[in-house]
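Render noroxomaritidine synthase in 3D.
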Amino acid sequence: MEEASFSVLLGSTRDWFSFLFLSFSAIFFLFSLLLLLLRSRPCCTCELCRAYLNSTWADDFDNLSDWYTHLLRRSPSATIHIHVLDNTITANPDNVEYMLKTNFDNFPKGRPFSSILGDLLGRGIFNADGDLWRFQRKLASLELGSLSVRSFAHDIVSGEICHRLLPLLSSVTEVDLQDIFRRFTFDSICKISFGLDPGCLELSLPMSQFAAAFDRATMLSAQRAAAPVPALWKAKRMLTFGSERELRRAIRMVDELAGEVIRQRRKLGFASHHDLLSRFMSSVDDDRYLRDIVVSFLLAGRDTVASGLTTFFLLLSRYPEAVTAIRAEIDGAASGDASDCSKLRELHYVHAAIYESMRLYPPVQFDSKFCLDDDVLADGTFVRKNTRVTYHPYAMGRMERIWGSDCLEFRPERWLSGGVFTPANPFKYPVFQGGLRVCLGKEMAVMEMKAVIVAILADFDIEVIGGGGERPRFAPGLTASLAGGLPVRVRRRKEVSG
Ligand code: HEM
């Protein structure tokens, strides 16, 4: 009897402790959520913050970037602050130089960024700071700078154009060019990075599982970055709920496929292969780290190039005189094959047109860092410790004070001096970033874009359907992509087919 009452007492004490523990956990969770909400200051009622929170900016502008451009053009120092995002946004080249070069160490990617992309990118170069970043930067710049990798990449791109892209365009009359470029760049970057062919651009147009999972994972990660209250996605992640559950599933699939690629590469041997994974395998043993390095490269090299190509053809539809000039340059250069690597380098007008189109439509429209300690930017703007500081290439390409009164015109000639392509100061044109973390794939990207543009314009007339070029709308994402794609009519040119 005594034993029975003791076990009842024990049971009710255990229940009582469980109840206390659960209540304490719930209060702790709610308190943390409240703190996070307060820290992200979603309650500011100034005009800008209200316009942001209520999305009333969308009454007058097609894209958030267009609204920011409008505000930055109006600001005397080309710098604004959105309180609810605790985000200082600048289109001032002196500030950009300050954060990317002069005081680089005080503007790392920072913890908030790495938590947004950490699940997808892990410790990959895009998500790393400090020694982790330095190690990968050194490794990657050695590889991407080497002649053998460049010619390997050129051979892959040429093969993909001749054997897949051109036959595909010959077989269609109407197509979404953005979709085609995304498939093309996914195949190319997978071959360059892994030595693996996902075959996205086959005539039957299957979209690989890998590409689809990667797309979903980048899109859902980007949604985190746009949230005015980070605590919400963090809570959803903790509860594996909604978009966070979907993101977890997509990342698991990316992990499985990347893991399989790494295992295969190890089995087949990597010493004699030229792809980046094989090269990294000589210096890195840890498979998880290899996965992170390679996924960063996919992100870096795929959507950016596809985005640059899509808006290039969008702009050409508005500026047919540029098509004529490009064809004249191709014809002039083509005593040999214009797609030959050394011939591509001679195409100065095409180079200028690519830079000009990315001035107006940069693939990475804005890029954020986090200020480590209180600082003062070059224009005198004070930034508090832990503030997000964003430079905005999209707005910078549209600033009269940087590019003159014709800044909204597509004019490749502004990049030519005596017919030779002449780059601008990278802090005025941070399309590839600039300073110590400048893009490592710049040359590869320009080579790839030139090869595609030359091949398509030599053989095909491309007409954008529906004249959607005047006011493009961008879909939310880490890289700019057109909402609704770029539907085009494709016609083989008479002189080529005849
Ligand atoms: C038009 C095409 C491209 C554009 C506009 C572009 C732009 C950029 C930008 C803005 C960054 C800085 C991102 C950040 O730190 O948040 C970056 C970094 C980087 N890009 Fe590119 N990129 C392009 C193509 C490529 C390609 C084809 C590759 C190589 C396969 C590549 C490799 C990298 C790498 C490795 C970094 C990281 C550098 C570092 O953090 O030290 N990029 N790129």
